[in-house]
Amino acid sequence: MSRTAIGISKVLATIVVLALLTAGLTGCGVGRPSSKEKISKTTVIYLRALADDDTATACEQLTRAAKGSACEVSMKERLSGLESDALKSAADDSMDIEVHGATATVALSEPEGARFVLKRIGGDWRIDSGYTL
């Protein structure tokens, strides 16, 4: 075998190994997060922020339309009727996520019937309605 053929074989073997590693890493969650993962993350951040009385972080998870003009003030008023443990439990429990193009719905395990509607804004997902629980 010529030196050129050996060199080409090594290059091809390297490409095959890199392709297999890339596929393996993507399958292990190392690749780019899916829409459902981003939606879940936004929802969990929102619920945990509410549970911790962190209205600034909770408001960051909302669309501009959902925030309104005084998000943090109105959020603090609404928090009085919500239980911190229930919010944490909802963040930890499974969610039913359905993606429909640039919108998605998230059904929470509790409180019963709680849902969020999210919109994709750029590469991020933000809660657009249902955010009052």
Write the layout of secondary structure elements.
Layout: H1 3-27, H2 35-51, H3 55-60, H4 64-67, H5 71-79, H6 84-92, E1 96-100, E2 103-107, E3 115-121, E4 124-129
Antiparallel strand pairs: 1-2, 2-3, 3-4
Descriptive report:
With 133 residues, the chain is of the alpha+beta class. It has 2 domains: 1-31; 34-129, Nuclear Transport Factor 2, Chain: A (Roll), CATH 3.10.450.50. It has 6 helices and 4 strands. A 4-stranded antiparallel beta sheet has the order 1-2-3-4. Helix 2 (35-51) runs antiparallel to helix 6 (84-92). The longest helix is centred in the first third of the chain and has 25 residues, at 3-27. Residues 16-27 have low confidence and may be disordered.
